[in-house]
Amino acid sequence: MAYTKVSIPKNGDGAGSPAPKSSDIIVIDVEDIETEPTRTVGDPKMTGNYTLKADAKALAIYGTPSTINLTEEYSGDPDARGVMQGVAFSHPGNSDEVKGFIEHFMNRGVVILVKECDGSAEGKMEAYGSKCNPLFLSVERTDTNEARNRVLTFKQEINGKFLPGTYTGELPELASASAASGSENEETA
After folding, report:
1. At 76, is the secondary structure helix, strand, or coil?
2. pLDDT per position as a tens digit, 62-83
3. Pairwise CA distance, residues 182 & 180, whole Å
4. 39 with 50: CB under 8 angstroms?
5. Residue 172 to residues 10, 17, 50, 79: CA-CA distances in angstroms?
6. Spatial distance between the Cα atoms of 18 and 44, rounded to a whole number of angstroms
7. Residue 104 pLDDT exceeds 90
8. Using CA atoms, how far apart are residues 49 and 113, in angstroms rounded to an integer?
9. What is the DSSP letter of 86?
């Protein structure tokens, strides 16, 4: 559907207040995507589902809710302006699972789904990146007497014409949690 010009009034009290996000950040390896939803400029609603190749699964990684930062950076020369989408969050601890995730995805493009807890049962899901213009990972680690965590930042490398899309399709199947999850702080006697 092409863009239809409409006036945009204030959309309610508190419309600019922060919106809580689900702590489950859904990561989809673009190499696993068989088909992805479509959209047109001027309509953020995505049509269709993410379907993955046989035996492929997306994964959920925990992000400390208060640290989830969704970004749009606009730049470019006249007639070539675009936006770079980004998702950043803090992941606590130093588990082997997060270290393995970082090593695996260091040079792989991804699409990320983030759910806004908007008061509805399903929440509002936004999709960041695409198969042709994915997000790429950079990491900053802290291990001090005050904190032990990593800030994972996913960002597109090329400006695009689309803002993050509103995704209402089915979630792809997620990989199971590791049996070792949650045990990194246990000590043996």
Report:
1. coil
2. 999 999 999 999 998 888 899 9
3. 6
4. no
5. 35, 30, 6, 36
6. 20
7. yes
8. 12
9. E
